[in-house]
Amino acid sequence: MAGMTIKDIAKKCHVGVSTVSRAMNNHPDINPETKEKILKAIEEANYVPNNSARNLKRNDAKAIAVLVKGIGNTFFSELVGILERECEKKGYSCILQYVDEQEDEWDVAIRVGKEKRLRGLVFLGGSFSQSQEKISQMEIPCVLSTICTVGMPGASLASVSVDDFKESYKMTEYLIGLGHKKIAFITAPKNDVSIGKLRLMGYRTALEQYQIPYREELVCYMDEKRDTYSYQSGYRLMQELLKRETFTAVYATADTLAIGACRALKEAGISVPEECSVAGFDGMDAGRFYIPSLTTIRQPVEEIGKATAGLLFDLIKGKEKPRQLIYEGELIQRESTARCKQ
C-alpha cells in the first residue's frame, strides 16, 4: 500500500479528492461516517501525509502545499493529481489545504508556510486581490495556478493560466455567431477582481464589438457567502435568472455552474439546446457525459499542472524569476448549443 496518492485514497473510498482533503483537515462540511471511512483507509494505507507530518519537524523537509479555494469545483481534482505526481518525481511531499470561501487564501498561505516549513506553495482558484504589502510577507516561492495575473493585482507573482479575457471573449463570440443576442451570464461574485472580472470583461467586450447592448439584468453573480463553483450554485443562479428576464443562451464561467444551470432549465420545462443554448468553461470530463454534452472552453489541464510544478521547483532552486505563463484554451462544440431560432 506504500506510495498511495490522495486520488488512490479517494478511489478506494468512492469519494472525490476534495472529500478526502476535508476529512484530513477536519473540515466540518463532511458526513461523519464518510470521514471515519476515509481516515481508516488513510491509516491502513500509511498514506504519505502521515509520513510528511513527521518529516516536517525536520528543517530539511522537502514539502510544498497546494491551497485550493473552491471545494465544489471538481476541475481542480485533476490538477491536484498532476501536481501530486510531479512532486513525487522530485522527491517532495505534497500537502493539500482547502480554504473556506470566507477565508483569505493569502493569510492561510502565510500561516501554513510558517507552521509546516514549506519549500514552496501553489494557489488553486480564488479571487486574487492582494496588496503588495501582504505579498511581501510571503517568505517562500509560490505560483498562482489557473489564475491569470497579467495586468491584475499580484502581477509580480509567478502564474500559470489561460488568458481568461480572451477565452471568455471567444465563447461569447461563438454564441453570437449562432445568432444569439440575449446571452445570460453566470459568473463569480461581483467583487472578484481576477478570474471573474477578466471573464466578465471578455463577455462584455464581445457583446459591445458586435453591437449587442450589455444588460446587467442578464448577468447573475455568485453570492460570495453562499455560492461556490458547484452544481448546486449553478442550479440556484439559473433559477434566479429565470425569474428576471428571457434569454436564448446562457454562458456560465465554470462547467459545474453550467451543468447545474441545465438541470434548472429542464425542471422549468425549457429544452437545451432547442430553446436555450448552454455553454461552460473548464473542459471537465463530466461535461462530455452529461446529456446533452456540454459546449465548453477546455483548459489544458495537463500542461497547466506540469508547468505549475516546473515553475515552482525552478523558483525553489533559484533558477527562475517569477513569470506568467499563458496557455491557449480550446473551444469544444458539443450538443448543448445550437443556432438561435428566435
UniProtKB/TrEMBL annotation:
SUPFAM superfamilies in the record: lambda repressor-like DNA-binding domains, Periplasmic binding protein-like I
Record-linked Pfam families: LacI, Peripla_BP_3
Stored InterPro entries: HTH_LacI (IPR000843), LacI/GalR-like_sensor (IPR046335), Lambda_DNA-bd_dom_sf (IPR010982), Peripla_BP_I (IPR028082)
Taxonomic superkingdom: Bacteria
HTH lacI-type domain boundaries: 4-58
Record's keyword terms, sorted: DNA-binding, Transcription, Transcription regulation
Keyword Transcription regulation listed: yes
One MF term in the entry's GO annotations: transcription cis-regulatory region binding
Keyword presence, Ion transport: no
PANTHER family: HTH-TYPE TRANSCRIPTIONAL REGULATOR GALS, LACI-RELATED TRANSCRIPTIONAL REPRESSOR
Protein name per the record: LacI family transcriptional regulator
Provenance organism: Blautia faecicola
Top-level taxonomy: Bacteria, Bacillati, Bacillota, Clostridia, Lachnospirales
